[in-house]
Write a structure and sequence with these properties.
The complex is a heterodimer of chains A (532) and B (116). With 532 residues, chain A is mainly α. Chain A has 20 helices and 2 strands. Chain B is mostly helical. The longest helix of chain B has 26 residues, at 8-33. Classes of the chains: A mainly alpha (532), B mainly alpha (116). At the A-B interface, helix 6, helix 8, helix 9, helix 11 and helix 16 of A face helix 1, helix 3 and helix 4 of B.
């Protein structure tokens, strides 16, 4: 169906973002910009929540831009999975924007900061909402350019500038490779609309009146396009060996931005991988054997990422760098869950298949909440300790401020996977899915990754809580404490409501990845417009 | 005899609740029974430990932090030398080797798939 709320969010939010520098020339009161950005972010949250509720009630919804039906025009398409990830993104971004009002309270360049922060949100929501592979490239660029600028926001710090340059250089390579992949796809299929591509790859109805049939060596072009796209997506999600930029970039950004990059931006790469390997090049498609091979590669990379991230956490002296390595480890685990879809491991719709994907998305949610909480807590800790990020100099900060200590413990327990927090249940699902799939050694490696990561988390807790305070710490205001409280409660809720949450996610995964679900994606996102 | 069958979710939540409750009860018992003022005695300052004076025991004490680094450095010296000094060294060219190897592997898979 033609749904205005699906199409209106991204263009209106980018409009709201780019008005800010102009307003900055007229309005001089910084509080205005805090209120403006928070209101814009709240607006995104309300629309994303509305879209999610509509999709849950009525099923897949789409919007063709400018009235141009796909594949001629760009369309946005929402199913259960992407509407949920968009809601998660909008929720965490709203909290991050609120926190930013405290973090950059006296910063004169606040209009530029908020333009970039809202630009980052627009890029993420655009990547998640889009039903067009080329628009995904455009939105990846919007997100990435905002991210590069935010990493180098403290432009007087050489480390920040170096990190931004490194991130930008490799990021540009990644998006260019994805673009070249799109050239292969367009040359072979005559279309870049995801629903139309799904149709053609799955042979629901290979011919299209506008985009025609197939051209040239379709199988070769598909293989190369998938290789290039996957490289770009694993770069965005910082999976080994495309993870090197992350431990440099995330710590150098302002702390709310670090929370957004580590908690949300990496999710976009994971989501794009899911959309490509479970909807367009789905298990029922003509290239399912190629997909099986690629999913085995993602499985190995996911495990390597999990292990390397966990090992590197243990030897960090910088609190933000430690958390950045934890992101690499957790995204590796999410990718391990996504890899269950290889037919060498499970059949579509089987218990292992559904459990693995449910675990992957559940862990994505738990990680986003836990990591945002830890980064935002780290921001307050660094402020309290006078700007130092060295763990040795943060001794006992949690003892002087028990609320801060509690937030830190909750975030660590969530990521470590200790019951009753959500992280335990998502790791359990990942573990169980590989047992079910007859690959217990992978379940054991998942546990080993968790065990190794304990070393890093212990260092964090020991430095902040179990050391006797030898210095005075500054107290933060109420606003960041409220944000930390909300995120802490959210972490607890994802655990306590795990029977309900896992059941919902299971339903979403089944609805999106089944043959009927994929057919519905094509019907609702493409064919229905031509019938009107 | 009846048995209680719980699924892993409910069992975990149930056990977590029981543990939280037990901890709370133990804490309440502790603060109720603990002394409000420190105990003083002439013998208290010099405990008799295993035949040696306390100072000997104290001198070989290892702090938790040193223990951590001892284990990490002792057990994983070679691993960390590779991971930290050769792989994550911050040099762009070295990163490029790993990242380009990965795209090479993916392209190889694509070619094998096409040629088969």
């Amino acid at each position: 169906m033609y749904y205005l709320s699906v199409g209106v969010l991204v263009p209106s939010l980018i409009g709201l973002a780019f008005v800010l520098p102009l307003l900055g020339m007229i309005v001089k009161n910084i509080k205005f910009f805090h209120a403006y950005a928070s209101a814009a972010s709240l607006y995104a949250l309300v629309v994303a929540a509305y879209n999610f509720s509509v999709v849950v009630k009525e099923g897949v919804k789409a919007y063709p831009f400018g009235g141009w039906w796909p594949p001629i025009g760009i369309s946005y398409e929402l199913d259960e999975v992407n509407s949920l990830i968009a809601l998660l993104t909008a929720t965490v971004m709203f909290l991050i924007t609120l926190y930013s009002a405290w973090y950059i309270r006296d910063l004169r360049s606040a209009p530029y900061y908020y333009t970039l922060l809202l630009g980052l949100e627009v890029g993420m929501l655009g990547c998640i909402y889009t039903g067009d592979a080329f628009n995904l490239f455009v939105m990846l660029e919007v997100m990435s350019i905002s991210a590069y600028a935010l990493v180098g926001f403290y432009r007087n710090k050489p480390e920040a500038v170096e990190a931004a340059i490194k991130y930008g250089l490799f990021g540009a390579v990644a998006t260019t490779l994805y673009f070249i992949g799109l050239v292969f796809i367009y040359a072979s299929f005559g279309t870049l609309n995801m629903a139309d591509l799904t149709n053609k790859v799955t042979l629901f109805w290979g011919y299209d009146l506008v985009s025609g049939y197939y051209y040239g060596q379709v199988y070769a072009a598909t293989a190369i396009a998938l290789a290039l796209s996957l490289w770009a997506f694993t770069f965005k999600s910082a999976v080994f060996p495309n993870h090197f930029w992350l431990p440099d970039a995330h710590p150098e950004a302002p702390t709310p931005v670090s929370a957004a990059l580590s908690g949300l931006v990496v999710n976009v790469g994971v989501y794009a991988t899911f959309r490509f390997l479970y909807t367009i090049f789905n298990p029922f498609s003509a290239v399912s054997d190629l997909r099986d091979l690629i999913l085995l590669v993602t499985l190995v990379l996911g495990l390597a990422s999990g292990l390397i991230g966990a090992l590197m956490m243990a030897v960090q002296d910088d609190i933000k760098r430690l958390l950045a390595y934890s992101t690499i480890s957790h995204i590796g685990l999410v990718l391990v869950g996504l890899s269950i879809g290889s037919s060498l491991l499970s059949k579509p719709g089987s218990q292992a298949f559904v459990d693995g994907l449910t675990g992957a998305f559940y862990h994505l949610i738990n990680h986003s909440l836990g990591k945002s909480l830890l980064f935002l807590t780290a921001g307050v800790i660094i402020y309290a300790a006078g700007g130092t990020r060295r763990l040795d100099e943060l001794g006992g900060v949690g003892r002087r401020n028990p609320l801060l200590g509690a937030a830190l413990i909750i975030g660590v327990l969530q990521l470590l996977g200790i019951p009753p927090f959500g992280g335990f249940f998502s790791k359990y699902l990942l573990y169980a899915s590989y047992l079910e799939a007859g690959a217990p050694y992978i379940s054991v490696i998942i546990n080993v990754i968790s065990a190794i990561s304990l070393l890093g988390y212990i260092r964090l807790l020991y430095a902040a809580l179990f050391t006797t305070p030898k210095r005075e710490f500054v107290r933060a205001s109420a606003l960041p404490t409220i944000v930390l409280l909300i995120l802490s409660v959210a972490c607890l809720i994802t655990g306590i409501l795990s029977p309900i949450m896992s059941e919902w996610l299971r339903r979403f995964v089944e609805a999106t990845t089944s043959r009927d679900g994929i057919l519905n994606y094509w019907l609702q996102g493409y064919l229905i417009f031509w019938g009107r | 005899m009846s048995t209680l069958n719980l699924d892993p979710w409910t069992a975990t939540l149930f056990l977590s609740g029981v543990l939280a409750l037990s901890t709370l009860v133990m804490y309440l018992v502790y603060i109720t029974l603990s002394r409000k003022t420190p105990q003083t005695s002439s013998e208290y300052s010099e405990p008799y430990i295993g035949g040696e004076p306390a100072s000997v025991i104290k001198s070989v004490d290892v702090s938790v932090r040193n223990l951590f680094w001892g284990v990490v450095r002792g057990a994983g010296r070679r691993l960390y030398t590779f991971l930290r000094d050769q792989m994550h060294n911050g040099i762009l060219n070295d990163w490029g080797v790993y990242m380009l190897s990965y795209i090479g592997l993916l392209t190889l898979i694509a070619l094998i798939y096409f040629m088969r």
